Fold:
Amino acid sequence: MNFSDWFAAKWTAAIELAQSVWALVLAWPVPTIATAVLIAAVIATLFIRRRDHSLGPSPDRQAEQLGRIQRLRGSRVIAIIHRETHMGAIPFMDPGRSYIDLNDFEGVVAAISKTSADRPLDIILHTEGGEALAALQIARAVKAHPAKKTVFVPYFAMSGGTLIALAADEIVMSDHAVLGPIDPQISGLPAASIIKVARDKPIETVNDFTLIQADIAQKAMDQMRRQACELMEGTYNHDGTCTISDELASGKWTHSYPITVPEARELGLNVSTEMPREIVDLVALYPGAGSHAPSVQYLPGQDGRG
Structure:
């Protein structure tokens, strides 16, 4: 048999196989597709290289870096770092997001309770925000610490992260890092926008649910302005004026609006760009997808001395 005959025979066999597979798919579509996906997933695992934990992110390396920063700065370091998390090992699932929650609040309070009153507090923030209650209580716990408080933002501290930053004496940001507005969100909608709709439309055209939402939104706006102003008292204002917090909570921007270093300074925030390289390196040590590590990290013992 010459090459041409051999190739034609193989080609015919391949076409017959494809027709058989297609007939099987038409006859039993769901089982066939499920089996194909399972086989593809098994094959894919053969090409996934396991991470060498001695080189990549690991709890030991995170703790070593936290200790290094504490020694350099003579402070207690608390890291609040949120990463993208995927839904287990199910293929093709959209990633979820970790965020500030009451577990973070418990972790921060536990760390601060083991910190001497005269020891400076360094908070490293890498977060898109989260629950308002948790962020507010973390901020209050930071504010209440007697020694100097510094917040470091290597990349972003949005929404509740910015609220925590307002409790610090100084905010240190990388050149391209951003903060964000702290305007409340009601059921995923900006409180300021809900109030605007209820105010601008004729009352007879507004349904009861929208009016109730507008009432809740107004309360949330008033609360946020007052609470943020309290966090900044003594650092940014001494006479009860709340210009900065009013601006941040006003709803004039979208909730994801990035407040850059120049804008933060223009608002009146005490911002430095002297970001230690060790802090940027720490954030890189926290894994993303598939990680179930706690968001709040600190070294155990009094003042983090083990």
Summary: The mean pLDDT is 85. Residues 3-45 form one domain. The radius of gyration is 27 Å. Residues 233 and 239 are 8 Å apart (CA to CA).
